[in-house]
Every structure is written in structure tokens, then in C-alpha cells.
């Protein structure tokens, strides 16, 4: 069942986003398409099988969900949508004006890109009807990249296993994004009950109705001009237009952030407002530190992004430091060959497998064009970024969470294009395939998988194979279908970002950095150090004083794109609602109203998915209900 649903996801998501150009159904840590399929499985299929005496157990339902969670990462935004355009776009978009044929083409390793420019041109412009897709041109580079991606995913699995005990058992993190699937399968094995308490809650369906009615009304405007849209987003300008603040009522974020700790929610919107004020001050004073970096989240200016990057670095170091006792125990168990308790991998497999995976990643990058020191920094930096993001998502419960900066930015600006050389710049551009868009990443899927499968007694030793099956099915299905769509319609006729913006994105930046190198990295490093210092103080105060109101997790992400454009207002509202309910109604009222807020998320995910099918059947494009 899990493999079949992942196969469906691998076909529906590319079609829905590239052809229908509707909602992003697999773009974050809680994919709407996975939630839709899980709701149908729990609400319709499982009760029917239960009546026939062949129902799913709770553990089996959890396995199906985590397979969809992992499989959703590799479609569109997670892998396929980056892989195919990036490895081909550097050839297709090369012109005499950008000079890519001289700058990058000589340094493209033949293993990594298709070698036939005509095949690449037809990928973007469409294939004549009497020709077949030239799979022979594409399979060698795709195979080499998939080998690297599998090693990368294996390494993140090992990291997740090493951190699971610390986060789940020692620190008892909240994992808000697991609350909805756990509630849906809570009573799966209770005799005589066809649906769990959550699905029988009237408040759940009341919350479900809000996004269903609002977004359905707004969607009907694509069919008849009589339906005037209800505005859910806008833009506020302050201080005579010097500061602009995007406003968006994001119902899933509102519902899921109701589960967030009050101090985390307060800190996110507080640091957001502080960031807006800081940007206004910088604008008034004319503070600049150079051009922005295209790999960075587009929520703030370079000084803000560097501050948040320094904060994220300190957070990762803090996570490793606080887990040192747990990691030391696993290291000793790995040396002695002892079995771990409650883990899907033994300590030996997790420790040595993780080290071997990281080493193979470095070796692969070195063999395909990067210098050893660049490859080493890129791997360490990327794994650190994903550990930091997954920690924030596990504790805060944000479905869409991006890193403020990625390692390529620091490497490019820190060493400079003169030191790196064009071969390293080319390799860094191609690394956008696996560390570019960070909202949908495998580390988030892994840590939530391990949380959902915890507490079942003996660890499921077959789970790694189920996850591997989900990845392989998702990769095969999404690559085949995306390739078919591109050669049928022409990539440039599908989605503008994935077939035009994304392929140009890294190499335009690298061209600019090469032709106009900045003289000094010191101003950027100064802001990075300032952010690191502030984060260290926040962590210290948080650890020493119970009454300290600001949670450190809000600082590294408050001015990232997903918060600025899609989340801050809903987080503020969730904080206000939860605070008032706890103050005047107590924990009992909070628990009683939780189904309503879960219904907001469930209803929007359901509505966004269903309208993709409706729009696709009727030929409507551009009806994007949900994003991030």
C-alpha cells in the first residue's frame, strides 16, 4: 500500500505542479498529498477492511504514512524538479552574452550532465511526434546522481538514528507535525470502532469546513467572474513606503502552530518584527555589505541573512554539544558491537554507516570536479544545515522551514572565485541539485519517521527497506513522468520557475561573482559573528532562567522567506488564540479546541489537493491554494 501510494504521488505531484500549476502538494515537511491519501486510507479504506476482518494495525498505518512522507521528498521540489533542469539548463541557456560555454561548459564532468545538446534542446522545447525520448542520453548522468543521492539519504538516516534517542527520549521534543497523523490512527486497533475519536469530532469538521468553503469559493473565480475572491493576503507599507510587510492568512500554519509552544511562537513573530525594524534602520543609514546570494532565503537583506546564518551555526553546535553524552554512549556501543534499544539501525551501523556515507559523498564530489577541501566543507555544511532545520521543525512544528543561507554562499564569498577557480564554481552550481531548496528535505522526513515509529516496542528492523523502496519508487516515477511531460509539451511551456528560473539561478549568480568579485568577506563575517553571539546569549539565558520569554529557535528563521511571506501573521494569531484559551479556559479547553485547529490544516490540505484534480480535469491553470 505504501509503495502504491508513493507511486501515485510521484505522478500526481509533477502533473499538478508543472502542468496544472496548482498547489505545491509535496513541498514541505508535511506534504498535503500525503495527508490527503492518509485521510482517505484511515477514513475509508481501513474501516472497510476492518469490517471484512482484514484491517490495518496502527503500526502498519504509521509505516504507510512515513513511506509517503519519505517518497514525497524526491518529487518536484525535493529532487526531480531540481535534478533534471539544473544538469541540463547550464547547456540550454548558454549564450554569447552570459559566456557560459567558456566559463562553465569546459568544467562540466561528463558523468554529471547529458552530452547531447540537441536532446537537451528538445527537453525544453518539445519532441517531434515521430521521435522517442532519448533515454540513452539521460540515463548515465541520472544514474550517477541517484547513486550520490542515495548515499546522501543513507547518511541522513544514520544521523537521524543517532539523534533520535536524545530528541525523543532525553529532551522529549514536541514534534507537533506528528500530532495529526497520530490522532488519525489513535484508535485503529480498538475493537468495534471504525473511526478514531478525531474523525468523530464535530470541531474537527467545523475547522475543516473553513478552508474548504473559503478556498472553494476563491477557486470558482477561475470558472465564473461572479465569484469575487476573498482576500487572504496583501502587502502593508510602512514609514512612507520604506518598509514593506507581506500579510497572508495561512490556515494550515495557523492550525499547526496552535500546537507550538507559546514561547516559540512568540519568539518567531517577535524576531520577525525586530528584523523588519532592523531592515528599516539599515535602509535609512545606507548600510550595505554587498550583493545578495541567490542560494539564500529571500526573506531579508544580506546583513539579516548573515546574522541568522550565524545563529543557525551556533544552534547546530549546541545540538551536538547537548547530545554529547548520548552520542558517546552510542559510540561505545558501536565499538563493542552492542545492539541498540528501540533503534531501526544498530549503533555500529548508524555510526560507521554515517561516517562511511559522509566519506563517500566527499569522494564522489571530489571525483566529479570539486577540490577536496571544497567537497569536505560542502558536505559538513550541508549536513549541519539539515540537522539545524530538522531540530527547528521538530520543536516548532513549522511545515515550511528554510535555512537562511546554504554552504555554497559561504564557500563562494569566503574563498572568492579567484581562489576557487571555475571548476569549483561549476561544481557548486551543480550542487543546487541536492542542497538548494531546503524546505523539503530528507532529514525532516527521517526524524519524523523515527518519532512516529517510536513507542511501538521492538524497533522495526524492516523499516529502512520500506524507506528505500519509497525513495526508489518516488525517484523512478517522478523522473519518468517529468521527462515525459517535458518532452511532450516542452519544459519552457510548463512551469516557468522549474524550467527557466531554477536552471539559470545558480549560474547567473556564479557568473556575477566571477566577473565582479567582492574585495572583502570581513563585513559579512562580522554580521555572521554578531548573529552567532546573539544566539549564544539566547541559548545561555534559555538554559539558566526559566522565566526568560524568548526562545532561541525563533531567531535563525524569523526573516526567512517562508516566515516573511507565508507564516508570520498566522503564527501571531496562533500564539494569541492559544494564549487566551490557556489563560481563561485552561488546559482542558485547549485540548477540547485542538481538533478545530487540526481541522484547519486537514481541510486546506484536502481542498488544495482536490482542486488540483478538478482544475486538471477542466483545463484551468494557476489556481494555487497552498504553498509552503
The averaged pLDDT comes out at: 91
* Structural domains: how many: 1
Q: Given the structure, what is the number of helices?
A: 23
Q: How do the strands of the widest beta sheet line up side by side? A: 1-2
Overall 3D shape: globular
Spans of at least 5 consecutive residues whose pLDDT stays below 50 are: none
In which range does the helix fraction lie? Answer: 55-70%
The biggest sheet amounts to:
2 strands, antiparallel
Strand fraction equals under 5%
Radius of gyration: 24 Å
Distance between the termini: 27 Å
Series of secondary-structure elements, N-terminal to C-terminal: HHHHHHHHHEEHHHHHHHHHHHHHH
Structural class determined from secondary elements: mainly alpha
What is the tally of beta strands? 2
Please tell me about this protein's structure.
The protein is 66% helix and 2% strand. It is globular, with a radius of gyration of 24 Å. A two-stranded antiparallel ribbon has the order 1-2. With 628 residues, the protein is mostly helical. The protein is built from 23 helices and 2 strands. The mean pLDDT is 91. A hairpin with a 4-residue loop joins β1 and β2. It has one domain.
Short description:
The chain has 628 residues and is mainly α. The protein has one domain.
List keywords for this structure.
66% helix, two-stranded antiparallel sheet, 628 residues, mainly alpha
List the helices and strands and how they pair.
Layout: H1 2-19, H2 32-51, H3 58-73, H4 80-92, H5 100-103, H6 117-125, H7 135-170, H8 179-184, H9 202-219, E1 233-238, E2 243-248, H10 251-257, H11 262-285, H12 302-322, H13 324-336, H14 347-367, H15 372-396, H16 407-430, H17 442-452, H18 463-489, H19 496-515, H20 522-544, H21 554-557, H22 561-566, H23 568-618
Antiparallel strand pairs: 1-2
Helix pairs in contact: 1-3, 1-18, 2-3, 2-23, 3-17, 3-18, 4-6, 4-19, 6-18, 7-14, 7-17, 9-23, 10-23, 11-23, 12-15, 12-20, 13-14, 14-15, 15-16, 15-17, 16-19
